[in-house]
Known about the structure:
Blueprint: H1 5-8, E1 14-17, E2 22-25, E3 29-33, E4 39-44, E5 49-53, E6 57-62, E7 66-71, H2 76-83
Amino acid sequence: MKRNVIDYSLDFPFFYLHDNCILIVDDLFAETVTFDGETVDRILNEQPHEIIEFEDYFEFDIIGVEKRKLMKTISESCKVSKTL
């Protein structure tokens, strides 16, 4: 997975290793990727935020604005549609 970090953010991203994915959090975006480097999900991120971990997803509580979900794994319906 290649990315020019300077184009996206003022800071370098933080990488968090989880059981079934890698969570990448930056000041402008958050995404989950598989251990093979395939992007599972990606959302816009804003500061300040709190990250709450659930079984299938992460919830980003953008303080005072909204809550956004970031999936941990590719769902079965997505796997089928990608193969078609």
